[in-house]
User: What shape does this take?
Amino acid sequence: MAAYNIYFAAEEASFGMPEINVGLAGGAAMLNTLFGRSKTGISRPQNSSLTEETTMADTTGYRPLTGRAFLVTGAGHGIGLATTKRLLGLGATVGINDLRQNFVDEAVGAVAELGGQAVGIVQDVATRDGMRTAVKALHDHAGRLDGLVNNAAWVRYQTVAEIAPATMSRMLAIGFEAVIWGIQAAAELMTKGAIVNIASIAGLRAAPNTIVYSGIKAGVMGITRAAAVDLGGRGIRVNAIAPSAVPTEGTMRLRNAERDATRIADTPMGRLGTVDDIARAVCFLLSDESEFITGQVLSVDGGTSITTL
Ligand SMILES: NC(=O)c1ccc[n+]([C@@H]2O[C@H](COP(=O)([O-])OP(=O)(O)OC[C@H]3O[C@@H](n4cnc5c(N)ncnc54)[C@H](O)[C@@H]3O)[C@@H](O)[C@H]2O)c1
Assistant: This one.
């Protein structure tokens, strides 16, 4: 059986998948409630339709992350870009990191009207030096660092026989090692704040041909807990999000209606996830709304990881 890709690195990425916009649902409702009232008493409408292009700040002026600075790795596309948009809408300064200049330029252009302040950072963050350079670039620009989202990934699904040193090394470098380098680099510059690692339900449940990917994502969950223990005393929280299947540029080549129908049937909420579902959860874990939550893995998956459907 031939190896096939789930996610594509920048130079191999495909584009053009339509955005999926959905109304308020499930975990989004919980987060909406949590974000519904600011400490200054400003409320946001509870029935607003949240889409990827509609941030809380667009309708309410509620910007609780104003003055704070976050770096999002792999923010040129998909979950990273959606997270960036939402952070900007909440008033933050965001370092938009990706591998290639054109991806970063397109992302910076796409967020121009959202508020906050976007800073493009073209950098391969798969190495210790690369990650430190990216983190420092945002810190130098903003004069502070309040959080990091370890999101970038390069992924191959391969049969047992097909797993090869080159693909394994590349997946480990960006998916596992870079998470640790990111935590190290951020911890050096943060006085307090929050780090969110993007894991996957593949770290909890197995799918065919995912030995390396599942191992990496389970490892990210372990890293998250151990880092939370080491950094909690400094007021730095470390949590992870475990998304289920989310249509993104990186996953589009793998998509087909039959597979999606199976996934939807296995999901209590009855739909696939969206990038904005994940972005809302990341912003919750970066914000003060989650200030006593650390070392946790939050599955954002419409319930698919807890069923035996
Ligand atoms: N989309 C899903 O179904 C899904 C499900 C579970 C978990 N995840 C996880 O969510 C995260 C984002 O996934 P996505 O689907 O949005 O991915 P994506 O492929 O759409 O985007 C990933 C981005 O990371 C960038 N990138 C890759 N290597 C990099 C490097 N060395 N330095 C800097 N940038 C780099 C790519 O250029 C790309 O823009 C990943 O960690 C992935 O494993 C995704």
Summary: The CA atoms of residues 77 and 249 lie 7 Å apart. Residues 7-10, 73-74, 76-80, 97-99, 103, 124-126, 151-155, 174, 198, 200, 243, 245-246, 248-251 surround nicotinamide-adenine-dinucleotide (CB under 6 Å). The beta strands are 4-5, 69-72, 93-98, 117-122, 147-150, 156-157, 193-198, 236-243, 297-300.
